[in-house]
Amino acid sequence: AWINDWCVWGMSLLCNPIMWQHQHTYAHHSHTNEIDRDPDLHHFSTFLRVHRQFEHKGIYRYQKYACFVAFAYTFVVFGECFWIPLDMVQTGTLYGVCEWTDGKRPFRAIATILHMAWFVTLIMVVPFFNASSAWKALTCVIVHIWTSGLLFGIFSQVNHLNEFSLDADMNHRTSNNNNNKNNIIIDKGRSKMLRYSWAAAQVETANNFAPNSALWHILSNGLNLQIEHHLFPGLNHSHLHRIAPIVEQTCKEFGVKYKCYNSWSDLMRAMLAWLDHLSVEPSAGKQ
Asked: Is the pTM of this model over 0.90?
């Protein structure tokens, strides 16, 4: 455990490591795509509507344009390193869906705040002391934040945000039907294992792409095998390809939908189609 606690600091230029362990390692991996439990669904609510249950805002009509989605993603790293942890420190939660328990642990609470200060100093202040002009310094700041944010966003968000994966939330997976085991709504065509299986839910809320491509495996740091990553988060991504055929066969055996796209672009188109669908203000009886 201590190795993971220290190694996560290798992501310091992409996210706040302390926050990441709550936001992603715990909450997202435990409650993937559940709107009232998964903080990852709430990151882009300022710009993007990714779930049916988000109230429609005027700005969401622009998410049908790929360039607007790309613009929203440019803020990912700034949000993960500063804006989101700042709100977490102030409120004690992540969007009100995940409690920041490390706030009660002085060392980790202080480390969270120090990381925010370090990121702002290194990325947003130091360039103004080293560059020959303020414009060059500002350019360096913007290029770093936007480039890292865009790259991080397009590889981390596409794996969960499309119609089938988001609808796997099934209205919080709750129902007023007392005869429904665990109060879970099962849509037609869904595996009945979603009634009780965490693993089935992980499979149906995630997507793989280009599973046999060494290039995409390297570029995505193994996130092209997102299903296996969610089922076995402690397994090094270099071994995910070894278990992928077994996972796929097991899913077929138990009737769990295993979604694998031929390429990253196919998966990206599926995500953009979903965002386009949600860009329209819902009317009575729709969405």
From this structure: no
Beta bridge partners of 94: 98
Q: How many other C-beta atoms can be found within 10 angstroms of the C-beta atom of residue 214?
A: 9
At residue 121, φ and ψ (nearest 5 deg) are -65, -50
% of the chain with per-residue pLDDT over 90? 65
The alpha carbon dihedral of 90, 94, 96, 98 has a sign of negative
Query: φ and ψ at 208, to 5 degrees?
Result: -100, 160
What is the residue whose two structure tokens read 């839910």?
201
Q: Are 75 and 157 in contact (CB under 8 A)?
A: no
pLDDT by residue (tens digit) across 28-68?
999 899 888 899 999 889 999 999 889 999 999 999 999 99
Residue 46 CA from chain centroid, whole number: 15
Alpha carbon of 75 to those of 81, 143, 259: distances in Å?
Answer: 10, 11, 28
Residue burial 106-126, b: 16+ Cβ < 10 Å; e: rest: eebeebbeebbeebeeebbee
Longest dimension (CA), the chain: 70
Q: Which spans in the chain are helix H?
A: 2-7, 17-20, 29-30, 66-73, 76-78, 84-91, 106-119, 127-130, 134-156, 163-167, 170-173, 198-204, 214-219, 226-231, 240-254, 264-278
Adjacent-strand bridge partners of 260: 208
Going by their DSSP bridges, the two strands 98-99 and 93-94 should be labelled as: antiparallel
